[in-house]
Amino acid sequence: MGLLTSSVFKQTPIQPGVELLAELLADYPTRNFQVRFWDGTTWGSKQPRFTLVLKHPGALREMFLSPSELTLGESYIFDDLDIEGDIEGGFDLADYLLTKDSQGLSQKLHLARALRKLPGRQETRPEHPTPNLLGSAHSKDRDRQAISFHYDLPPDFFALWLDRRMNYSCAYFTDGEDSDLDTAQCRKLDYICRKLRLRRGDRLLDIGCGWGGLMVYAAVHYGALAVGITLSVRQAEVARQRIRDAGVNHLCRVEICDYRDLEPGCEFDKIASVGMFEHVGEAQLPEYFSRAWQLLRPGGAFLNSGITASATDHRQGPSFIDRYVFPDGELVPLNISLGAAERSGFEVRDVESLREHYALTLRHWVRGLEAHASQARRITNDTTYRIWRLYMAASAHRFRSARLNLYQMLLTKPLNGQSSVPLTRADWYRN
Fold first, then answer.
1. Phi and psi, residue 133, nearest 5°
2. What whole-number distance in Å separates Cα of residue 94 and Cα of residue 69?
3. CA distance 378 to 48
4. Which of 100, 236, 304, 424 has a CA-to-CA distance to 209 between 20 and 30 Å?
5. Using CA atoms, how far apart are residues 38 and 58, in angstroms rounded to an integer?
6. Model pTM?
7. What is the mean pLDDT of residues 359-378?
8. What one-character DSSP code corresponds to residue 414?
């Protein structure tokens, strides 16, 4: 039985486009949502996981005339539609609509004709900045522009929904979704330090140090001498203040610097790169790992934590995230990253997937952003709030559905065949 012929949907309002929506969703198997039309009438489950709110008669035309990840995303961020309730639940429906390919040519032409008969948007969409990056992809200047576009929003915006240390990377949970985000992020920082076998006096390089959470933690709890680099001026300012507040100026410093500009003569005992790897780009992987190899002393360890795309996930059409969130971001399959690391000389000692942990982290972030929606809109604007809510919920969905993964790679630079790594991982899991 089709979705729209079930008893739940008997009270179908007579609205422009309802019949079209019925055709689009006739074979959709899940009956856990509701549609609310621009005049307030509703259609669907009485206890919905989420409600799709169509703001005007032309919303369906905006969404489906040329359907893609980008057009659906823009319909949300520019207020043709809203999603109330569990926004992550809406992505199963979006996947169905974007992958619906069982229609014959005549049916597709019929739907296209019907969409063109619907009214268009009556108001002009609001202006919102999109990246206008100059230079060749992943050149130093262009990378700086891309990083600025994403990270140089007001720090107060990020502080609304991140943990108190402002860790913008995957947390580490032990007891599921109910775990406190601050605790899970603290556990992640300690887990990284233990994987690196960090010791007092170790020289630690944090590539892409963000707002300084790992550096301060490593200095306070392990006595490390930490140097952090970032391309974001605003991140550097906040990180320096946090270092001062923690009283570890003598142990930490932050530089606005590209990893390619670090002098090979600088030598570190340990290196961490957490949440920066997505900005490197596949073509730059040999230089990225070679530079880390040069900067690491023999016997040292490098923990690289980054998001990867499934080798079987082939997105179609333009990317919403490229346009509005992460310009020039590249998610490289794990096998390519490991190959580049090994060819640079590293020994791969451990690879751990934290996919479920990142889905949980993102759900915490989405709930935190939603809980502070009015403040987020005041600090930025409504469109920016919508972009970030959609982007983080979509990412949680993709981690849940195994199209994205998060891997921590532990790499070492052996000294005369000795890696300085114990025979077991027992020390990683101490209380």
1. -85, 135
2. 8
3. 29
4. 424
5. 10
6. 0.91
7. 98
8. -
Distance CA 252, CA 210 (A): 14
Name the residue among 51, 54, 45, 71 with its Cα closest to residue 15: 54
The tokens describing 404, both together, are: 């994205």
**Which residue carries 């990225």 as its tokens?**
288
210 DSSP β-pair partners: none
Q: Cα separation of 332 and 322, whole Å?
A: 15
pLDDT digits (tens, 9 = 90+) for 31-47: 789 989 888 888 788 89
Tokens of 106: 């005549």
Read off the amino acid at residue 232.
Answer: S
For residue 70 the two structure tokens come to 């980008």
State the DSSP code for 126: P
Q: For 254, phi and psi rounded to 5 degrees?
A: -125, 135
Q: Which residues pair with 273 in a beta bridge?
A: 207, 304
Name the pLDDT band for 65 (thresholds 50, 70, 90). confident
DSSP 3-state of 409: strand
CB 367 within 8 A of CB 65: no
Question: DSSP secondary-structure letter at 253?
Answer: E
User: What is the DSSP-derived secondary structure letter of residue 212?
Assistant: S
